[in-house]
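Query form — protein O-antigen translocase

QUESTION: What is the three-dimensional structure of this chain?
INPUT:
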Amino acid sequence: MSDTIAAQEPPASKAPSRSYGQILRSTAVIGLSYLVVTLISVVRMKAVALLLGPAGVGLVGIYYLVVDLAGSVAGMGVASSGVRQISEANGSGDRRRIGRTVAAVKGLSAILAVVGGVALAALAVPVAWATFGSDMQAMAVAILGAAVLFKVLGAAPITVLQGLRLTRHLAMANVASVFAGAMATIALIVWLGEKGIAPALVCGFAATFVAAALYARKADVEPVPAGEAIRDQMRPLLRLGFVFMTSALLTTGAAYLIRIIVLHAEGVHAAGLYQSAWGIASLYAGFVLQAMGTDFYPRVTEVASDNVEVNRLVNEQARVSLLLAGPGVIATIALAPVVLAIFYSSAFTDAQALLRWFCLGMMLRVVAWPMGYIVLAKGAERPFFWTEVAAAVVQVGLAALLVPWIGVDGAGLAFVGLYVWHTVIIYFVARGLSGFRWSRGNMVLSLAYVGATLVTMAGCFFLDFWVATGIGAVLAAATGLYSLREVLSLAPEVVPKALRPLVRKVLG
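ANSWER: The structure tokens for O-antigen translocase are given below.
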């Protein structure tokens, strides 16, 4: 496929419209569930912030990272490779092959979950020393072994739902699990205080496992004996899974090391500010990125051998993602201190500069991520591995340099530096694999939205608060209106027929 073809705008035909419609419908389903999850999460975060303060929020973030890191190793990447294998099997229409892959993912995950949970509990003392510099948190780390068990177990039914593209079931399972986890978190922290954090995490991951397993049972999958399935599928699952595991380990390990850098350089209070800023920055962009991983990854995997189709899908996904994420990111930058006070408390407003840096990085992340799925869909293990290694080195290296120099805000600058570097590198990797090039429209949109983000950032750092907020509000409103008009013009069928005349009249 030539670069010229790859760079062309999608033709004005019904197929692209249907494709944009599919992107928006799947994003709407995930987005609606994400909105509910976000509201529940806000209540949970607010409760933790008021009950435990910045130090408690920082401890929650560190515990989560310990579970994520141990879960990444224990899971061996089976969940991520399983999505790819199930998507391929689903695309073939071979029910026996689908059933075999599903059974293998579930069986392997169960074995790995037990091993991972027991291992973390056994290594609780050295893990506590490595993380906190003492063994005072060893009991809590041992309890987190149960969280690792449920995390790896829960990844299997989530993989099944994602690989079969049962987006609605996945969304409902997500809402149910987050609600149950939030209620348990608030109750345990009210009852036990700081000592309730680790049991609360266990309850949250257990709720995820139960909810996902119940919804995965609704999938129409041909039953296959687990032993036979594991023997047949273990090698390909673990082979590709090792690459995914390494990637997850690098990503989570980098996040873990950065928290340790912040904790040791600035204290647990600064770790709490970091967690609060990261939590908010992840919320808005998160629904776009989650929808991308949930529906877009299986779709692009199914057509991975067709470079023209892959490049068309990536350009379409990138456009929709930018349109949806851009205005919210700009608004969050402009209103950072207000958002922090609402989501947490006034004790967290010192994290406003850090939140703005994270938001700028998130804008770049939205630009880069669709291209990364070309690497995943193609199964290009070596480029994927080395880009992840380099990304971890860049982020941790920048954080180690900047945090001791300028404080916790240096971690935000490191995140921006990571995605400046990663966006450039992943573009050339994707171009080498599929001949990908940005469409002209996407290049203009990216420059406009990133430019608006930078203007808002500059105003917040150099102008009076109210002037900067006014500029940010105008840019957020302008990009929001443009995004709404553009999204509805790309896929008008997503608007109910009865409302189309009104929408056309309002939007011109």
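ADDITIONAL NOTE: Confidence is low (pLDDT under 50) at residues 1-15.
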